User: What shape does this take?
Amino acid sequence: MSLLEVREVTKRFGGITANADVTLDVGEWEIVGLIGPNGAGKTTLFNCITGVYPINSGRVGFRGRDITTMKTHERAGLGIGRSFQNLGLVRGTTVLQNLITAQHMTTEYSVLEGVLGVPATFTAERELVKRADRILEFTNLTGFRNDVIDDLSYGVLKNIELAAVLATDPQLILLDEPSSGLSPTESDELGNVLLRLREEIGVTILMIEHHVPLVVRVCDYVYVLNFGNLLTEGPPHEIQKHPEVIAAYLGGAAASDSDDEESPDSDDEESPDSDDEELPALPPGYVPFRAGPRAAPTPKLKKKTSTSKKKGAR
Amino acid sequence: MLTYVIIGLVSGAIYGLAALGLVIIYKGSRIFNFAQGEFGTMAMYVMFVLVELKGVPYFAALPAGLITGIVLGLLTERFVARPLAGAQKVIGLVGTAGVALLLIGLTLVFADPKPRSVNSPLVGVGPTIAGYTISRQQIFAIVVLIAVAASSAFFFKKTFLGMAILANSQDSSAVRIVGASVNRISAITWGIAGFLGALTGVVLAPDVAFYPGYMTTVVLIPAFTAGIVGGMTSLVGAFVAGQIIGLVEAMGYYLVKQFPDALQTIPEAPAFLVFVVLVLTLLIRPKGLFGSEA
Amino acid sequence: MAQAVAAPPASRPVVTRRLTPSRIIVLGIIAGGVLVYPKLGSGVAADRFTLAVIYAIVGLSVNILMGYAGQISLGHQAFVGVGAFSAAYLTTKGGLPIVLSVPLAALIGGLIAALLGLVALRIQGLYLALITLAYGAVAERTIFGIRELTGGGGGMPALRPEFFTSDASYSYVCLAVLALLVFVDWRMLRSKFGRALLALKSNENVAASFGMNLVFYKVGAFVMAGIVAGLAGGLLAFREQHVVSADFTFTLALTFVIMTVIGGLGNRTGVILGSAFTAYLPFILNKISDWTGSSRVIVLRIAITAILLLLTLTKTPGGIGQQIHPLTEWLSGKPFPRHNKGHGRKRKVKTEAA
Assistant: This one.
């Protein structure tokens, strides 16, 4: 059973069908890519999965549970975290405050207690700061702890947003174009980070991406969207060479150019399959959703709730 | 009951004129101009000074009133709308509310708060339809409305300037590319709105006893409701919805007359009805009857 | 991430706060002045002071809604009015003592505001602003016109109990309430409730992705603002000892919004100062008109308020709060800032904005 099930999801806006019968699965501990030309409906699909948009038909399931009618904050409570194209951060305040704000769901006092300033809240708040600092350390962002969001550059903020998403204690992270605005070196770094996240925290990732080398290097499986429809799916190295995918991106250029166009340019990373030898064995009893997820996670970062027991977003 | 229908249609003409100014500003700058009413009140006071204090005939003083509105519109654009164009829309709205308050404040300083009116050669009885005697001034108001309707249809559809104003609301870079000046278009838009606000005021002035803030207190909320019901992006909507709101209000008066006891609990039923229409429209169909965006 | 960002700079240290003697003296003078003022002169000084305090409370209420939660409220006078009439009615017709009627009035204010909050769930931005304005205008005519509740045009009396009949003692009561509210506001902003409001203001989708229940916090913001406004209304009723619906026109609503904006949205101190100033303005103008002998000066009040608003919006958007930022920073123990950064107006990067 997959962690995230998207079944024939259709989303229409007036006369335009942004997503048409999209079906995809994300298995636990996979890193799945969602690619497609601009306007293919990828962010719309994210919005449907997270509940920002109500869908016209279809179903979304998480851990076997039907979440199609749940509100966004409830889905966040189940463990679905997400980043935004325009940076999902709170303006006008510091990085630290953002990380504390993002821990909203694990803040263990009631609203009334918070308003009245009951002493119990002080301990809870201190815990939040500590956890925020741990996340900053984990993501190497401690230097920006007290900087105001509005003063920082785009590249830095993308990293901070990722830290904020981690602070929401997610099991599934939806990343919306995490490498946009980053240089090739930075993208490379990002790939390392994502793999490390999966290995050390055990998160599952579904990411919208345009940067092909990153997708090829990091993703176990790729779905391709075009004009709202699922065009094709498969392991990255197959998708790379798929003529329709190339045509969709290039608008119908000759399929014979496939080898040049989509292969990673100056990428000297190993080919997709060679990673397997270096990975630790999968835990006994674990049944991978698809053949070949890359690593068994060894959670290093102690989270407050290591399972999905959320307090119900309030 | 028909009497009230006539009353509604007549006051609807005023609401339609006022709503038109609001819609034009919204189409041009995407903000709600809370000062639209006061453009009218100021024009009313200018007319008062000229007609009652200086003895200038009504129609001769009319241009002065209209120019007042145009100038106020231009000033508001230059000193409030333009600087706040990049900020959140709500800030712009608070800014125009500030302009309204400023204008009210100024009239309080320079004018006597006693209710005033203006003499017009058209004051006097006209035909009686369905038991309601329409004054000739009110007929004048309706004629003006029709004239404005026709000329704005022509202006916005057929002239370059009109189309540029509409284009500016969609995407000002399109306007820049064509070589027109966005600032100038913006100024002209507000000038037109000021003109319409003043027109509403001067047309109404002989028929009412006005005081500082009159237009804002009496006309603005129904005018906004008309704008919303018609669709804030629709000129046609402004006219049609103006009539609708006029009728709704008249219906309120009718109900009060018919059921005086039941309605003791809701004083000012007409205003309440208009409010209900506003809320319902925004809840059910925010883009209004003819509007194109929610 | 470390390599991509080059060695991260050493964490900018949190500035340690120092409570030097000079700061203590200044704070002491301010506090002393505030505490002694109501006793000065005749009861008139105290009466004006009370009004300023009540306005400050209203300002805090508007600030919760507009400054923290990013909503809009152009009909706020309705909440204050409901609070005033409720308190008056509960005491005069219901026989409840002031210590019960005022808090109840606050709750009623919260209830009424909750209704508007529910509307705000469906309607946003400019349209919501319009609804709040229309609501305020309608409330003035309909709710406040209901004879049974409000005594119609004549109004409803609200007499203070013997303990507080002196204006000065009533001043201190109101001051105590203000101080309490400042404390609550402070705690609330630093709690998850306050953070949720700020996130809501910044971008609703992002807030939802952090697990925040938008309905709860949006309506909650309205309820909190309504409670505080109702409280102010209750206090207002007993200040005048008589409540008349003509006191709550839509011009008052605009005044409330303007004084909060002038104070600086989101800045507690600024809002209190802006509101107090607005309350005192008529009296100041009275004084000036006495000196100059011209009664026209008094009427300048509205025009002045409007001009201040326009100046604030176009020149110093952070309002008074922005202007006194160096001073408040210093008083809270930090070193005197070199340049006035105000309230983070600079935006280098566009983050996801609603």
Remarks:
- Residues 2-29 of chain B form the longest helix (28 residues).
